[in-house]
Design brief:
Helix content is 61%, strand content 13%. By secondary structure, it is α+β, with helices and mostly antiparallel strands. The strands form 2 sheets. Strands 2, 3, 4, 5, 6 and 7 form a 6-stranded antiparallel β-sheet that branches. A 4-stranded antiparallel β-sheet has the order 1-10-9-8, with helices on one face. The relative contact order is 0.08.
Length: 609
C-alpha cells in the first residue's frame, strides 16, 4: 500500500513540476508493487498447500484431504483471498502496462499508472482494515473446515481468476481514459490505446462468465446455464458496458465521433466492476456462490465504492470538454448501426441493473423481502435481444458515412437462406423454426458479401456469428426442453421422448474428502445405446453437507441430463431426467465471439503506439 501511495504522490509532483524521467521511476515502483503483492499471494498459497491451520482463513476454507489443485483454488475460495487475487490481477495489468511503455516520455502513461495505483491503494486499505487473510488462530485449528462443496469444481480454479483479469484489464482502459481527461488529450490515438487494452480484458471476462455458466450447469443440478443470480449479474453488468465500450472506442478511433460515449462507458464499466465487489463480497444479497455471508463489511465497501465512483465522475465532469464531431454520417451507415448498438447495450444494462438492485433497495428500506427472477429478465430483455440481432443483420457490409443498400440478389439469397433454416427446424415447432429462420437470415446477411468485404470485416463477422449461434442455443435450449421426475430402482427403465434411460448399477466409493453414491445410467434409442451418464450424491463429512453431481452426456445437438436425488428405498432414488437441444451452442457462440475479437486485436497490433 505504501508503494501505491508513493506512486500516486510522486507522479502528481512530477507532472506538476515537470520533472525529467520521472516516468521510468514510476514504472519501476509499479513493478515493485506487483512483486510485493505476488510474494504475499504466494505466501498465502503456501499456507494452503502446507495445511497451516494456524491461519484463520486457511482453517475456514481448506482441509487436509483436499486435492492439491483444490487447495490452490481455495486461496481465492473465500472473501479475503478473492480480494487479494483481484488486487494482484490489477497490479499485474499495471506492471504489464509499465513494461510496455517503460521508455515512453508522454506524461499520459505515468498518470495512468498513478490512477491504477490509487485504485489498488484503496482496495489494499480495505483488505488491511477489514479483510486481512493472514489473521492467526491461537491455538491453531486441528483440522480445516473444508472448502465449500459447491466450489470444489474445475470451474472454480479458472472462473474467478479470469473474472479478476477481466476487471483489472478494464480498469486499465478506465485509468487511461481518466488520465487522458486530466492531461486534456482524449483523442483518436488514446481511444485506440484504450481499445487495445480493453479487448483482451473483455475476452478474459467473457471466458470467466462462460466458465461460470458451465459450472452452474454441471454443478448445481437444475439443468440451466443462467439463473439471473445477483452474483451472475454482477459480472454481466461490466461485460455489457465493456462490449459497448469496444464498439464506441473503435468509432472514436476511426471517425473521431462518439467521444463522450467512450468516456462515459469506460467510467461506467469501472463503476460497475466496483459495484460487483459490493454485491458479491458484502453479504447484502445472498447467493449460491457469494463469497461473504455477513454484512459487516457492507458499509466500508459501500464507502469505498461511492468514493472511487464519485472521483471518477468528478474528473469527467471537471475535465471533459464539449466539441463538435469531426465526421458526418447520414442514413443507414456503420455509424448509425453502432449508435443503435450502444443504445441497446445501455438499455439492457439498465434493465439488468434495476432487476439486480431493486430487491436490495426494497429490503434496506424496510419494506420486506422481494425476489426478482428469471421471468422479469427474460420477458423484459427479449425485445432488446431481437432488435440486437436485426441491427447485426442490417449492419453487415455497411460503409462509413453513407447508406449501404444491398442488391436485390443479395436480399433474395438471404431470405432464401432464412426459409431453408426455418424448414430444417420445422420439426421442433413453429416458434423455434421462426426463431431459427431469423437467426439464419442474420448469418446470411453477414456472410453473403463480396470476398473482399468478408476479408476486411472478418473479425466482426466471426464475432457476430458467435452472437447468432449463442442466440440460437438460447432459443432452442429453452424451447426444446423435455423433463420428467420419477422414483427409479436399480434395473428399471424410464422413457422420455424417444429415449430410454436404464438404471444399470449403483456404486459406493470413498474419494479423499467425501464419500459418493454413483448411479450408472445407460441411454438407448431404438434399442441402440447412444450415451451413458453417472450422476452422484456426495457427502462431505467435514462440513456435514450433501451435494449432488449431475450426470451429463452430449453430442452436437442434444444434452442428456440426469440428477440423482434423495434415496426413497433400497437402491431406489428420486431422479430427474432432462433432454434439451442446443445448450452447447451457447458456449460455442461465446468462444466464437472471443475468437473474432482476438482476431481483430491481432490485426491491429501494428497500430499500437
Amino acid at each position: 500500500m505504501a508503494i501505491c501511495v508513493a506512486i500516486g504522490t510522486y507522479t502528481l509532483a512530477g507532472y506538476i513540476f515537470r520533472w525529467r524521467r520521472f516516468q521510468r521511476i514510476v514504472a519501476c515502483w509499479t513493478l515493485a508493487q506487483f512483486g510485493v503483492l505476488l510474494f504475499a499471494f504466494a505466501i498465502l498459497a503456501l499456507c494452503f498447500v502446507q495445511d497451516d491451520f494456524s491461519v484463520n482463513y486457511v482453517a475456514q476454507h481448506s482441509h487436509r484431504d483436499l486435492p492439491l489443485g483444490l487447495k490452490i483454488a481455495a486461496v481465492w475460495g473465500g472473501h479475503e483471498g478473492s480480494l487479494l487475487l483481484w488486487v494482484l490481477c490489477l497490479s499485474g495489468w499495471s506492471a504489464a502496462f509499465a513494461c510496455r511503455y517503460f521508455r515512453a516520455t508522454d506524461p499520459l502513461f505515468p498518470l495512468t499508472l498513478a490512477v491504477l495505483a490509487t485504485i489498488a491503494a484503496a482496495l489494499l486499505a480495505f483488505i488491511l482494515l477489514f479483510s486481512d487473510p493472514f489473521v492467526r488462530l491461537f491455538p491453531p485449528a486441528i483440522e480445516g473446515r473444508d472448502l465449500n462443496p459447491m466450489l470444489q469444481h474445475i470451474g472454480l480454479i479458472l472462473h474467478p481468476p479470469l473474472l479478476y483479469l477481466g476487471y483489472g484489464g478494464l480498469m486499465v482502459s478506465a485509468a487511461l481514459t481518466l488520465a487522458a481527461l486530466i492531461h486534456g488529450e482524449f483523442n483518436a490515438a488514446v481511444a485506440w490505446l484504450c481499445w487495445r487494452w480493453a479487448l483482451p480484458a473483455w475476452c478474459a471476462l467473457t471466458s470467466g462468465i462462460l466458465l461460470g455458466s458451465w459450472w452452474a450447469y454441471s454443478e448445481l443440478g437444475w439443468g440451466g446455464w443462467w439463473f439471473w443470480d445477483p452474483v451472475e449479474n454482477a459480472s454481466l453488468l461490466p461485460w455489457l458496458t465493456s462490449s459497448a465500450l469496444l464498439h464506441s472506442l473503435f468509432v472514436t478511433r476511426m471517425r473521431g465521433i462518439y467521444r463522450h460515449w467512450s468516456l462515459l462507458l469506460a467510467i461506467l464499466t469501472f463503476i460497475l466492476s466496483l459495484l460487483g465487489t459490493l454485491i458479491v463480497r458484502s453479504g447484502i444479497l445472498v447467493s449460491v456462490h457469494a463469497f461473504a455471508l455477513d454484512n459487516d463489511r457492507a458499509v466500508p465497501l459501500f464507502i469505498l465504492f461511492a468514493l472511487l465512483s464519485f472521483l471518477a465522475l468528478l474528473i469527467y465532469g471537471w475535465c471533459a470538454k464539449g466539441g463538435r464531431p469531426v465526421a458526418i454520417y447520414t442514413g443507414w451507415s456503420r455509424e448509425t448501426a453502432i449508435l443503435l448498438t450502444l443504445l441497446l447495450f445501455s438499455a439492457v444494462t439498465l434493465v439488468v441493473l434495476l432487476g439486480t438492485l431493486y430487491p436490495m433497495i426494497y429490503g434496506l428500506m424496510g419494506w420486506g423481502r422481494i425476489s426478482v427472477g428469471a421471468p422479469y429478465f427474460n420477458r423484459t430483455l427479449l425485445p432488446f435481444g431481437v432488435l440486437m440481432l436485426l441491427v447485426i443483420g442490417f449492419s453487415a457490409g455497411g460503409y462509413w458515412k453513407h447508406s449501404n443498400r444491398g442488391s436485390a440478389r443479395r436480399l433474395a439469397a438471404t431470405l432464401a437462406t432464412a426459409g431453408i433454416t426455418a424448414a430444417v427446424f420445422w420439426g421442433q415447432g413453429a416458434v423455434l423454426a421462426l426463431a431459427a429462420g431469423v437467426i439464419g437470415w442474420v448469418l446470411a446477411m453477414q456472410w453473403i458479401q463480396p470476398l473482399a468485404a468478408i476479408y476486411r470485416q472478418l473479425p466482426a463477422l466471426v464475432a457476430h456469428t458467435g452472437v447468432a449461434l449463442m442466440a440460437l442455443g438460447i432459443v432452442f435450449s429453452a424451447g426444446s426442453r423435455e423433463e420428467i421426475s420419477v422414483n427409479v430402482t436399480q434395473g428399471e427403465t424410464v422413457v422420455l421422448d424417444d429415449y430410454q434411460f436404464h438404471f444399470q448399477q449403483l456404486t459406493l466409493n470413498a474419494v479423499q474428502n467425501y464419500t459418493t453414491e454413483q448411479a450408472t445410467i445407460d441411454i438407448y434409442r431404438d434399442g441402440k445405446r447412444v450415451a451413458s451418464v453417472i450422476p452422484e450424491r456426495r457427502y462431505y463429512s467435514a462440513r456435514n453437507q450433501q451435494m449432488i453431481e449431475p450426470g451429463v452426456a452430449w453430442n452436437v445437438f442434444r444434452d442428456w441430463y440426469v440428477v440423482m436425488g434423495e434415496k426413497t428405498g433400497e437402491n431406489r432414488y428420486a431422479m430427474r431426467f432432462c433432454i434439451q437441444i442446443g445448450i452447447r451452442w451457447i458456449w460455442c457462440g461465446g468462444i466464437l465471439m472471443m475468437a473474432g475479437a482476438l482476431l481483430g486485436w491481432h490485426r491491429g497490433r501494428k497500430a499500437d503506439g
